[in-house]
Amino acid sequence: MKRYVLLTVVLCITSLLNAQSDAFKAYAEFKESMFNEYNGFREKANRLYAEELKNSYGKYKALPAIPEPDDDLLPIVIDEEKLNEMNEDRVITIDEMLLWEKPLPQPLPISPIDEVPYPYGEENVPFEFYGTEASVRFNVSQGFSLETCDANCISAAWNRLSSCVYNNTLADCIAIRDTLQLCDWAYLNMLFAMAEACTRDKNSATMLAAYLYCQSGYQMRLGHDENDELVLLYGSQHTIYDNSYFSFDGVMFYPFNAEGKELGVYDVSYPNETPMSLLLSKEQKLAVAMSEPRILASSRYPELIVSSCVNRNMIDFYASYPSSCINGNFMTRWAMYANAPMDASARASIYPAFAAALSDCNELEGVERLLNWVQTAFKYGYDNEVWGDDRAFFPEETLIYPFSDCEDRAILFSRLVRDLYDLDVALIFYPNHLATAVKFSCDVPGDCIMVGEERFVVCDPTNGSSPVGKTMIGKDNSEAIAIMLE
């Protein structure tokens, strides 16, 4: 009887293991078939794309650049005696405001990238962008070059690039983007730096970068100028100022590191292509090269003195960043700068000093001191006198450059208040002036604006050394527009 029971148990276990084995085998076969289907889809898409390149050529004239609005205004300096004279609180209801939309996830390839194990002739090619060193696997033995910019040559080059030979390169590029949290603009610049390190001439580098950019999920077009120099045109979700552009299917395409009033363009779309976003929602993890210290002190609160250092690689990155806006509304450009997170190295440089100087302050006192620090630690200067045109600053740029104006100070102050006190802040736009307003968690007297049921107290970082709750003379809050920040 015991033998019978034991045999029955053994048979049941064997049957169960066989069933599991069949299930695992079926799942593995399903997974492999899906992977092959994905790869087949990408191979087919690239084959069709290469074929369409032969029949999509046309000459197009660039549309004129949209100039960046000039909103400079020299602030009115108020007598110190009048600054402490608090008038009756003015409560203004804001009817017009701009709400901030969170950016969408970054694009991905249309199918998983099938990496090639131990390919013959592949090496790690090092390169550098914005002072940051990186490397990718690249098949040096086969190399890559583009002979001419005619349709047949471009098509053949695309077919060659879309073979598995460059899969590892593509996988490495996407891994660098994700590891360093590169925004779309930084990623495109990284691809060009990488492509220049892997090729011998400009056209070959542009072709390689364009292919990898497209395969990463981004929208682009290929073109060439009258000198037969290849140009990558990147589609943008946002209007970019002071750059001529081409329009295809209602999307603005901008030449990358190139100019041309007229280009020959291969107008071919790729499946699921996504235009570039110029929103900076994550900290860019570039290599750190700190600037020399800059001493910045508040005139009213001498204990609030900060030795500021910033990452020069980030400053170089910001200097290259296109000035843009959302849906053609120029006021949104300030939110794009203000919502960018401050670099970790800059935070480590200044935030401990703020924490120490503000440790004994309540919320209002702390924001009051931050406001005076931003008002008095920096020298005011017109953008057009310093830079030749209007130019908003990211927060770290105000910390390093010798001059700043109202928009730069409003952006920096909004970042400090949100980071140090976790309070909601709105940028307040008046004609030719930008200030801020803070939603305190306690009752604070002074001028304020009502956004729905929420009360934001005016804080003007350019208004002399005025206190919290004081609107600049000559500015009417009833004309203000609130720009809500993250």
Question: How would you sum up this structure, described in words?
Answer:
- There is one protein chain.
- The protein has 486 residues and is α+β, with helices and mostly antiparallel strands.
- The protein has 13 helices and 21 strands.
- The protein has helices at residues 2-53, 80-83, 151-161, 167-179, 184-198, 202-215, 312-320, 332-338, 344-357, 363-376, 383-386, 395-400, 406-421; strands at 57-61, 91-93, 97-98, 122-129, 132-139, 220-224, 230-236, 239-240, 246-248, 251-255, 262-266, 294-297, 305-308, 324-325, 379-380, 403-404, 424-430, 433-439, 448-451, 454-459, 481-484.
- A seven-stranded mixed β-sheet has the order 2-19-20-18-17-21-3, with helices on one face. A six-stranded antiparallel β-sheet has the order 1-11-6-7-10-9. A two-stranded antiparallel ribbon has the order 4-5.
- A hairpin with a 5-residue loop joins strand 6 and strand 7.
- It is elongated.
- Residues 30-35 have low confidence and may be disordered.
Give structural attributes:
alpha+beta; elongated; 486 residues; six-stranded antiparallel sheet; single chain; 20% strand
